[in-house]
Amino acid sequence: MDQYEKVEKIGEGTYGVVYKARDRITNETIALKKIRLEQEDEGVPSTAIREISLLKEMQHGNIVRLQDVVHSEKRLYLVFEYLDLDLKKHMDSCPEFGKDPRMIKTFLYQILRGIAYCHSHRVLHRDLKPQNLLIDRSTNALKLADFGLARAFGIPVRTFTHEVVTLWYRAPEILLGSRHYSTPVDVWSVGCIFAEMVNQRPLFPGDSEIDELFKIFRILGTPNEDIWAWIPAKELQQEVHLSMNTSRILGLYPDKAIYPSS
After folding, report:
1. pLDDT above 90: residue 260
2. Does residue 171 contact residue 149 with C-beta atoms inside 8 Å?
3. CATH classification of 4-81, choosing from 3.40.50.360, 3.30.420.150, 3.30.200.20, 3.40.50.12280?
4. Where in the numbering of this chain does the Protein kinase domain appear (predicted)?
5. Class assignment of domain 85-252?
6. Sequence-distant (≥ 6) Cβ neighbours of residue 132 within 8 angstroms
């Protein structure tokens, strides 16, 4: 770790701590993600191994770049390119952002490019949210970050855990307990982020899984076995049944126009 000098702490979570740091050799500003190993009886956490292995394979302009991995006895450091802004902070600091269709489309395009690259390499991100979308202030380049929950997938579709994705951006099939899902769960998250950029507030801000489903069904209607054959009828009957009402969707954005009139 002698090569890197910590400047300040910029984030913290269950995984560990993220620091703004400086490379003493190149004088480059970088981000250091410190993974705690003290309580890991089995060594390096699987989320860290997964993130390292996937990011080493993926090189794309809209995916954050992993530059180095430093492993000591009780610490694991991931060295990333430094981006000091995420989409959540950008939206919070720019009240007029939702009125700028050009910038919204620019960011949405980059999110879709990044996730299309992931999917073409058979990788599900599984944790897309504004906080995990980093922005370069100088160029407005947007990059997908935090691949700790990402998974490789193949054919046939594998069985995954349903405990993924921050609640507000979680696809209904995961909320309903499906363990057989694929790329649409990321696309759902992108749609929620798109709506949040336009409206400057989360689309489905549920405070529990059932409340999240209720908010989704209130706008989009309740799915049935004709739509999702894998959902047991008795499971659907336990959820809130609401009829489809597209006017509710339009009502969320009464004065929004993403596509300028010609």
Report:
1. no
2. no
3. 3.30.200.20
4. 4-262
5. mainly alpha
6. 86, 144, 145, 146
Distance CA 244, CA 190 (A): 22
Tokens representing residue 29 in the block: 């500003």
Task: Determine which one of 2, 100, 127, 255 is catalytic.
Answer: 127
Judged against a pLDDT cut of 90, whether residue 118 lies above it is answered with yes
For the chain, percent of residues with pLDDT exceeding 90: 52
Average pLDDT, the chain: 83
Q: Which of 74-88, 141-155, 164-178 is most confident?
A: 74-88
**Residue 136 annotated among the catalytic residues of the structure:** no
The encoded tokens of residue 3 equal 């090569």
Sequential DSSP letters for 177-204: T-S---THHHHHHHHHHHHHHHHSS-SS
- The residue behind tokens 């410190």 is 34
- Residue 33 assigned as binding residue: yes
User: How many other C-beta atoms are found inside a 10 Å radius of the C-beta of residue 17?
Assistant: 15
12-58: pLDDT as tens digits: 866 778 999 999 999 999 999 998 776 656 678 877 888 888 888 89
pTM equals 0.82
Contact by Cβ (8 Å): 185, 124: yes
Give the separation between CA 127 and CA 140, rounded to whole angstroms: 22
Query: What are the boundaries of each domain within the chain?
Result: 4-81, 85-252
Token pair recorded at residue 240: 């809130």
| Residues 35/44, Cβ–Cβ less than 8 Å | yes
